[in-house]
Structures are given as C-alpha cells and as structure tokens.
Design the sequence.
C-alpha cells in the first residue's frame, strides 16, 4: 500500500490519537512507531519496518555515525496496535521528542506514515516553500 494524504487530528489527554481510516488497513494489526527525522514520528507497517531494520543491520558497527543512526531509530521504537476506536497510544518519550501536545498532522509518505505536531508541520512547510527552487534543483539531480 502507498500512504498518501494529510489529516488533522487531536491528541487526547491520555496520549492517544485516531489514525486516519485510510491508513489503518495498510498499517495492519501491529506496526512500529519510532523517532523520525525533522522531529516527527515515523510509523511503519511490519513489512516496511523489517525492510528498514534489514538495511540498518548492514551498516558498519565500526562507524560512529552508523551506530548513532541505528540507536536513534531502535531506542525510540515501539510496537503499537489500534484500539477498537482506531486510536493508537503514543508513548510519552515519543510525544516529547516530536513535541506532540494537542493538534497533530498525520501524513502519508509512500511506504510510511508520519505524525507531526501541527506547529512543527506548519513551520516545516513555511521553510520548504521558501526553499522551493532548491528542492526542485535537488529533485532534478536525482532524476525526478
């Protein structure tokens, strides 16, 4: 499944958020939530997490940067599942990392889902819009 779209949601007082219905089937019964880049959370279906894990295992342990990268993703990772209302409980350490307080934006990014604080998402988009030409040039360099 390819995850696409942007959805606004609210974190409840217990740290739960409703996962958009369009993402639920693709995530499956159990999935992995971990720290993402840009201070958001990455949400992986089990199959994608296993592929990502396989790639991380190939990184050289002799490299300080590789070890830091592996620790970053694995230390914050947790297995989640949806409750009967389609919500997930986001652990406190991940809520703190992504600065999730109340308003959230949940986006589909091809093979994963990202969870952002609305404030950080708005800041990110403002910065990305200012750097539009640079993004276009980098995409051209990648052959897109």
Sequence:
């Amino acid at each position: 499944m390819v995850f696409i779209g942007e959805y606004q949601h609210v974190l409840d007082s217990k740290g739960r958020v409703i996962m958009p219905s369009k993402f639920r089937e693709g995530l499956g019964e159990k999935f992995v939530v971990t720290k993402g880049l840009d201070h958001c959370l990455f949400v992986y279906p089990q199959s994608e997490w296993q592929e990502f894990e396989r790639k991380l295992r190939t990184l050289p342990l002799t490299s300080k940067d590789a070890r830091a990268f592996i620790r970053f993703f694995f230390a914050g990772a947790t297995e989640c599942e949806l409750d009967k209302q389609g919500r997930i409980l986001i652990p406190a350490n991940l809520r703190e990392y992504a600065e999730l307080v109340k308003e959230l934006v949940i986006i589909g990014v091809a093979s994963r889902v990202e969870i952002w604080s609305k404030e950080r998402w708005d800041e990110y988009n403002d910065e990305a819009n200012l750097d539009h030409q640079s993004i276009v040039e980098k995409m051209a360099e990648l052959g897109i």
The chain has one domain: 6-117. Helices lie at 21-27, 46-57, 64-75, 92-97, 118-130, 132-141.
